[in-house]
Design goal:
The complex is a heterodimer. In chain A, strands 6-7-8-9 form a 4-stranded mixed sheet. A 3-stranded mixed sheet of chain A has the order 1-3-2. In chain A, strand 4 and strand 5 form a beta hairpin. Helix content of chain A is 55%, strand content 11%. Chain A is an alpha/beta fold. In chain A, helix 15 packs antiparallel against helix 17. In chain B, the strands form 3 sheets. Chain B has a 6-stranded mixed sheet with strand order 10-9-8-11-12-13, sandwiched between helices. Chain B has a two-stranded antiparallel ribbon with strand order 2-5. Chain B has a two-stranded antiparallel ribbon with strand order 6-7. Chain B has 3 domains: 78 residues, no CATH class; 78 residues; 169 residues, Rossmann fold, CATH 3.40.50.410. The longest helix of chain B is centred in the middle third of the chain and has 35 residues. By secondary structure, chain B is α/β, with parallel strands linked by helices. Chain B has 12 helices and 13 strands. In chain B, helix 10 packs parallel to helix 11. Classes of the chains: A alpha/beta, B alpha/beta. Chains A and B meet through helix 2, strand 1, helix 3, helix 4 and helix 8 of A and strand 1, helix 1, strand 3, strand 4 and strand 5 of B.
């Protein structure tokens, strides 16, 4: 339906929109309607949009609370705010043009200082690009619940401020500090979370409190068991290693009070909510950038926006997708906007005008309907799989990609592959790996708890490619110890299976 | 359908709680920076906020992340010279080959040694004077209350006509009228109904009608006699006088300006006065400052002359104390003013004068002042003045003396003088 409507619309000469730089709410609405129509004609499915105009100060507020519209209070957000404000006022950094929140309705922030062109860019980018990605990508649909996130954040904020009232700011802050430190090891990577509403959340929180405590009491029952059982089999607890350390602590830490377990849960939930965003940075930004580019060009082609508008837009757009070379002083890794944008453009090219090479590399999509292919890609991949599926030799040549191997045992760095026939496959694999979070984030698992002994807990670190843990180690163990309250031991298992203790807390003097 | 919402008018200080949390948490470091600042920066800008910098290693939020070493593969753009199989010498650690693109690594704040930020004047003063309290504030407040202010205190049934509360009075009047005429109205309604019935009949009995009319008229007259307003109804706004502590303070600055006091010593004294002034300004709305300088004679002067004019000659401290007492008696009755005094000197005094000082302080000044602090700025041994003041300290809790040797001592000494007393 929408498709036909919009087609009709665009055949008649379109009225040119006012291109003066200042925006008004009427103009925003006009532009938004045009953008919306184009977006629908491309079949973008979105949550309803809620567009909020805010000041730069408010933008910094939103920034420092990691984009959450409602957040509980914590000093680290204050620190981020001060940092942001400081570097903004010194002109060291510009603010992001927009922030968009994965919720239903999808909340997008526009900054009041932006020109009309910028606002149009942001509307196309956030309200149709990101929004449709949130609604369609499999990671977001299975792992996050856009309908309930705002409710949950409100619940979290109230719960934590209630705790502060009851138990004091400091006690809550200590728990939060430790949880924040362990956020990275507080996500389920393989299990699928269930969705519940706010009302259930409240009821279940109460029930959980009582139940958990009873469980823990049972686990740590002090009545000694008969000796016979002990000698039979020494069972490990947990029977399988656990990757979600925070979850394990929430359920099993011996001395935590019910409210502390709930705080752990809140941090864990929020970490889980943001986890898909970490996994789809390239795709998400690439998708949004591709769509603001495509939508605004369509508007230009049918005469809705002027040359003047377009020049300003292209200026911003090229800034966003700028990719400095490896030897440039501005180089700081691969720009996810640039990589993602180029890949989506490249997929469209492969569909529309495939070369012989493309036909060899992408028999499935060469010559297919580009819109369908793009939507498929958006739905079913994350960064790692997206790159290993769609990075084409053409793009590798264009970006002049090369892969280097840095082995700390050798005193030189090895150039493994460059953008030639022999190298394409290697580069593609190695770039894909670069976005695999399980390679980047340390693999730490709960291995054993001395249930019948001194209640110490043992965690195991499995190094990826012999990369050791950073020095924050000892401090991290103190955080673990704060939650567990008995001895915490961290072991490292190297690639031949040799186990060494790399840290313990409380520290024991070597003798 | 999209909604546009204008949030610009919403409060912008959403993060202010978080900011306070941050300051609370790093109080120790911030305090250190603040107390460094008070000794370092110039006297005149003590009113403004302060730029605080604390070591960023104290601020890091740790998390498990990969360290150095191991085998890493990375893809970079913009190849201009390499062929596969090339061996490159390892670049220095910050090169792109090392952890580039890892957005998380920057969170640990490495690379910046100092975390610098601004605190406002209020935050600055709060931190500067944290844990400090004005001594003897409570006892005196109750003992010496003279000022009062008028506050509302509900309603009364007696009062002056200009305080009549019309709404309440009329409300009483209405309810009284309803109450007093209720039964008669009921009767009246019944009679009227009866009359109506009779009127409707074919052959009304004249006799009964006449009787009814008479009764009705009688009842109406009775109802009309209920007075519209009565003394009993009247309500007056009530006011009460509430004693309130005086919010005015006067601060006497006494300083020896004889030849032995050099400019450096005066600067030290000045800083002490400024601290005292800032501190008092947190408690009192209005503060008068009286500058009294003395050598052999005392004189009330303005601020500039106080600090910067040079005099020579001997020293008679009692002259300043006398003048202070005189001014206080004339202009600042202790019933209306909170009196504070700070005396600075290098300890010199004409030996015969010392007992007089002791006596004036004991008899005239200490009974009326909230706090009298004496600081002696000298590197030499104490002289007779210190010894004689020392005798007063034990018997007078409102009197304190301290010894300062250099600029850096001021703030600690000040803190000690105004330390919150736990009792």
């Amino acid at each position: 339906m929408a498709k036909i409507d919009s087609k009709n619309d665009y055949q008649e000469p379109s009225t040119r929109l006012d291109d003066s730089p200042d925006w008004t709410f009427e103009k925003l609405d006009l532009y938004h309607q045009k953008i919306k129509r184009v977006a629908q004609s491309y079949g973008l499915q979105t949550y309803p949009n809620q567009i909020e105009v805010i000041t730069s100060e408010q933008m910094m507020d939103a920034y420092s609370s990691v984009g959450m519209p409602i957040g509980y209070n914590h000093w680290s957000y204050g620190k981020k705010y001060i940092q942001t404000k400081q570097s903004y006022s010194r002109g060291q950094m510009g603010l992001a043009y927009e922030i968009v929140i994965n919720s239903n309705p999808c909340i997008a922030y526009l900054m009041e200082e932006n020109t009309m062109t910028m606002q149009a860019l942001v509307i196309a980018h956030a309200c149709y690009g990101h929004n449709s990605f949130f609604k369609n990508n499999y990671l977001f649909t299975t792992w996050t619940d856009a309908d309930s996130i705002i409710d949950y954040l409100v619940f979290a904020k109230t719960f934590i401020s209630d705790c502060e009232q009851k138990h004091g700011v400091e006690a809550v802050e200590n728990i939060l500090d430790s949880c924040h430190a362990l956020m990275n090891v507080g996500v389920d990577r393989y299990k699928r979370p269930s969705k519940i509403s706010i009302v259930e959340e409240h009821q279940r929180q109460k029930a959980r409190e009582e139940y958990l405590q009873s469980q823990v009491n049972d686990l740590w029952r002090t009545v000694p068991k008969s000796n016979q059982e002990d000698t039979l089999v020494k069972k490990r607890f947990p029977s399988e290693p656990q990757e979600n350390v925070l979850y394990f602590f929430e359920k099993n830490a011996p001395l935590l009070k019910p409210w502390q377990r709930e705080v752990i849960r809140i941090v864990r939930k929020i970490a889980q909510y943001f986890y898909p965003q970490k996994q789809t940075q390239v795709m998400n930004e690439g998708w949004a950038t591709f769509w603001h580019y495509t939508i605004l060009n369509t508007l230009y082609d049918n005469g809705t926006v002027s040359d003047k508008f377009m020049l300003e837009f292209l200026h911003h757009h090229t800034n966003v997708i700028n990719q400095p070379a490896y030897n440039s002083p501005h180089y700081s890794g691969i720009n996810p906007y640039a990589l993602g944008f180029s890949m989506f453009i490249d997929i469209r090219r492969i569909c529309e005008t495939p070369t012989e090479e493309d036909k060899r590399w992408f028999p499935d999509i060469a010559g297919s309907d580009w819109l369908e292919t793009l939507h498929f890609a958006c739905k079913n991949f994350k960064d790692e799989s997206f790159i290993s599926q769609y990075l084409s030799p053409h793009l590798m040549r264009e970006m002049k990609l090369f892969s280097v191997k840095d082995d700390s045992d050798k005193d030189y760095i090895d150039v493994q592959a460059i953008h030639n026939e022999q190298g394409y496959q290697t580069i593609r694999e190695s770039l894909a790996k670069q976005y695999n979070l399980s390679n980047i984030e340390p693999n730490i698992q709960v291995f054993n708890v001395e249930v019948d002994g001194d209640r110490s807990i043992t965690l195991r670190y499995y190094p990826h490619q012999k990369i050791e843990l950073a020095d924050s180690l000892q401090e991290m163990l103190r955080h673990l110890h704060r939650l567990w309250q008995f001895e915490v031991i961290l072991e490292q298992v190297d690639d031949v299976g040799k186990v060494t203790v790399i840290a313990r807390c409380p520290e024991v003097a070597d003798s | 359908m999209a909604h546009f919402i204008d949030r610009r008018l919403n409060g912008k200080n959403k993060s202010s709680v978080n900011r306070q949390r941050f300051i609370r948490r790093h109080k120790r470091q911030i305090k250190q920076a603040v107390s460094d600042a008070i000794t370092q920066r110039s006297v005149s800008d003590v009113i403004t906020g302060e730029s605080i910098s604390i070591p960023s290693k104290d601020l890091t939020e740790p998390f498990f992340h990969q360290g150095k070493g191991g085998v890493r593969e990375r893809v970079h753009p913009g190849n201009d010279q390499f062929q596969s199989g090339d061996k490159i010498n390892r670049p220095p650690p910050e090169s792109p080959a090392d952890g580039a693109g890892d957005g998380e690594a920057s969170d640990s704040g490495e690379g910046n040694d100092e975390f610098e930020f601004q605190i406002s004047r209020d935050e600055y003063l709060d931190i500067l004077f944290e844990d400090l309290a004005l001594p003897n504030l409570q006892q005196r407040e109750i003992a010496n209350i003279v000022e009062t202010k008028v506050v509302r205190a509900g309603y009364t049934s007696v009062g002056l006509p200009n305080n009549i509360n019309i709404v309440r009075s009329l409300r009483n009047s209405l309810s009284r009228r309803i109450a007093m005429s209720g039964s008669k109205r009921k009767e009246l309604r019944a009679l009227e109904l009866r009359l109506q019935c009779l009127n409707g009949q074919q052959a009304p009995s004249n006799e009964e009608m006449t009787q009814l009319k008479i009764d009705i008229d009688h009842l109406k007259a009775l109802i009309a006699k209920v007075p519209f307003i009565d003394d009993f109804d009247l309500q007056f706004n009530n006011f009460a006088k509430q004693p309130c502590p005086s919010s005015r303070a006067v601060m006497f600055c006494l300083m020896d300006v004889s030849g032995s006091m050099d400019q450096g010593t005066k600067e030290i004294a000045k800083r002490f006065y400024i601290l005292l002034y800032l501190f008092l300004s947190r408690t009192y709305k209005t503060i008068d400052v009286i500058y009294i300088r003395h050598h052999t004679q005392a004189k009330e002067v303005d601020e500039h002359e106080f600090f910067y004019s040079q005099e020579t000659g001997g020293t008679i401290v009692s002259s300043a104390l006398k003048l202070m007492h005189q001014i206080q008696q004339q202009r600042y009755p202790d019933s209306q003013w909170n009196i504070y005094a700070a005396q600075a000197s290098d300890g010199d005094n004409w030996a015969d004068d010392t007992p007089t000082c002791h006596e004036i302080l004991r008899r005239d000044i200490l009974p009326v002042t909230r706090y009298f602090s004496y600081i002696e700025i000298t590197n030499r041994a104490h002289q007779s003045l210190w010894d004689s003041y020392q005798k007063l300290v034990d018997s007078h809790p409102r009197f304190a003396i301290k010894h300062i040797e250099q600029v850096a001592d001021i703030y600690p000494v000040f803190r000690e003088l105004f330390k919150k007393q736990v009792s």
